[in-house]
């Protein structure tokens, strides 16, 4: 094989490799191209997702506040119940003392 034949053969092989690469690139872009409608739909979906996350965060904040309020109210009610039970216990004790004193006389 002479030098000229070698250069021509190498040029043909490189040209064929270039054509195959270009064709493969064209196929990749053809199959992976995203339509404008798809991009608009993805934008809409992402906006709805963002709004849903904000709504969820607001609901969590509201529930935490409501839970704190109810816990506080429960603590107050339990304290009032304890005070009422103590008062009732004292009243029963006092009633028993008065019955005991009236029975003795």
Description:
Helices cover 94% and strands 0% of the residues. The chain is built from two helices and no strands. By secondary structure, it is mainly alpha-helical. The model has no long low-confidence stretch (mean pLDDT 92).
Keywords:
mainly alpha, 105 residues
- What do the pLDDT scores average to? 92
Number of helices: 2
**Count of beta strands:** 0
Helix proportion range: over 70%
What's the shape?
rod-shaped
Provide the succession of SSEs: HH
* Integer tally of domains: 2
Q: Give the low-confidence spans.
A: none
Q: How large is the radius of gyration?
A: 43 Å
**First-residue to last-residue Cα separation:** 143 Å
Question: What characterizes the major β-sheet?
Answer: none
The amount of beta strand, in percent, is under 5%
What structural category do the secondary elements indicate?
mainly alpha
């Amino acid at each position: 094989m002479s030098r000229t034949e070698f250069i021509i053969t190498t040029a043909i092989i490189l040209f064929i490799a270039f054509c195959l690469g270009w064709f493969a690139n064209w196929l990749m872009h053809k199959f992976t191209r995203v339509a404008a409608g798809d991009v608009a739909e993805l934008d809409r979906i992402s906006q709805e997702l963002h709004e849903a996350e904000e709504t969820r965060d607001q609901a969590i904040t509201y529930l935490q506040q409501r839970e704190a309020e109810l816990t506080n109210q429960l603590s107050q009610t339990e304290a009032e119940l304890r005070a009422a039970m103590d008062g009732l216990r004292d009243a029963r004790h006092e009633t028993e003392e008065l019955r005991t004193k009236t029975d003795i006389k």
